[in-house]
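Try this one yourself first.
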């Protein structure tokens, strides 16, 4: 289940802010993040992670429906790298399922 903006507003409201204050706070934070990324600047939130804007060069591509070759234009993409602290908390909270030893060996040639 994904946490929505409304869920975040509700959590902020639970901290004692009025509903309008909670909405304004969340909207302002999102606008700050959007404008920062639009300028090509990174966002580093200690203990959480880093949002980065990366530039992709033009490259050759293929239309999967027609097989036609085409040039994909240069573009910017946003990447996220979580902090080590967050990664450790996630892995401590829900460890990856163990692979049975016999299943692991049967996959080997």
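Now uncover the answer:
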């Amino acid at each position: 289940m994904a946490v929505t903006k409304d869920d975040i507003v509700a959590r902020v409201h639970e901290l004692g802010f009025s509903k309008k204050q909670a909405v304004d706070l969340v909207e302002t934070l999102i606008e700050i993040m959007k404008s920062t990324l639009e300028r090509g600047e990174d966002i580093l939130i200690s203990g959480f992670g880093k949002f980065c804007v990366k530039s992709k060069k033009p490259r050759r591509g293929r239309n999967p429906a027609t097989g036609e070759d085409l040039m994909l234009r240069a573009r910017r993409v946003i990447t996220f790298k979580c902090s080590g602290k967050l990664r450790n908390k996630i892995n401590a909270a829900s460890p990856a399922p163990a692979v049975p030893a016999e299943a692991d060996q049967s996959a080997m040639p």
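Discussion: The two ends are 39 Å apart (CA to CA). The first strand starts at residue 43 and ends at 45.
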